[in-house]
Design a protein that fits this description.
CATH architecture of the largest domain: 3-Layer(aba) Sandwich
CATH class of the largest domain: Alpha Beta
Number of helices: 10
Distance between the termini: 23 Å
Structural class: alpha/beta
Number of strands: 8
CATH topology of the largest domain: Rossmann fold
Strand content: 5-15%
Radius of gyration: 22 Å
Helix content: 40-55%
Shape: elongated
Strand order of the largest sheet: 5-4-3-6-7-8
Order of helices and strands: HEHEEHEHEHEHEHEHHH
Length: 275
């Protein structure tokens, strides 16, 4: 909405991750997935936008992507996690936060779990975790003490508040999360195997990216019900994923340090100077 409101009037610098800023070099946006159908006809959107522009006395919009062809488009993520990486022409400048230094993999298998209790898949996973013998530490957003008691077992620690991510990653061989950008970035940069339990489109794309680069896999609620224990045990013990996690972490370290804030400021100053 901001880009459209400013179109033809005020220069805009867009800052976001790969999901929030789709490629705009073509006349239509590329789909998230190859078989994903268009929800709304782009021509209809253009018609509505031009109707609004006509009422406000603004310039006509030639295509649906035009308002997003702004003065600056800065993608703040890692290239491997960008769902549009094969189509991206915008600069990928690295995350603004969340990266950790590579950390040696612990010799003993253990988990760090970061989930939300309000998601339907979370209780299903907690049942799997309760039946597991793997040592685990977990912060489950919104979990009550009564719920924690339901899933309690020896070797499983539930925290009442978020914990320092560097400490949690240091002692874990695998992280379990919903596929949010922050946990993906932190786990990749630390060199940890990941099991993602996606809850919406963005986390699904992130989860698939983890599988694509070889550091983890995703699981659905149905898969957890049918073979959750096997998924957990096989993923945390997979030597190929552990090796890929190490390689990816070292690549992130070697490509860095990322200085996204400097790039953002430079872009803004350049745009202002051009005015």
């Amino acid at each position: 909405m901001t880009c459209f409101a400013a179109y033809g009037r005020i220069p805009v610098v867009q800052i976001g991750d790969g999901f929030t800023i789709p490629p705009a070099q073509d006349d239509v946006f590329p789909p998230f997935r190859a078989k994903k159908k268009v929800t709304v006809d782009p021509d209809q959107l253009v018609s509505v936008m031009n109707d609004v522009q006509g009422r406000l006395g603004g310039p006509r919009v030639p295509c649906v992507t035009a308002p997003l062809r702004t003065a600056g488009r800065l993608i703040c993520t890692l290239m491997g996690l960008d769902p549009y990486k094969d189509l991206r022409e915008d600069p990928v400048i690295g995350p603004t936060e969340g990266l950790q230094p590579p950390t040696p993999m612990p010799k003993t298998q253990s988990l760090f779990v970061y989930l939300g209790i309000d998601q339907r898949i979370t209780p299903r996973f907690l049942e799997v975790l309760k039946a597991s013998k793997l040592p685990a530490r977990a912060y489950i957003r919104g979990m009550t003490e009564e719920a924690a008691e339901t899933y309690a077992r020896p070797g499983l620690t539930f925290y009442k508040a978020p914990q320092p991510i560097d400490e949690m990653l240091r002692d874990a061989t695998m992280t379990v999360h919903h596929g949010g950008s922050g946990m993906c970035l932190a786990s990749c940069s630390a060199g940890r195997i990941q099991l993602a339990l996606p809850i919406h489109e963005e986390t699904l794309l992130n989860a698939r990216a983890l599988g694509r680069i070889g550091v983890g896999r995703m699981a659905t609620g149905k898969e957890l019900e049918e073979s959750g224990q096997e998924i957990l045990d096989e993923t945390v013990a997979d030597p190929r994923k552990a090796e890929r996690a190490r390689i990816i972490a070292e690549e992130i370290r070697d490509v860095g340090p990322f200085r996204p804030m400097e790039r953002i400021i430079e872009t803004c100053e350049s745009v202002l100077g051009g005015r």
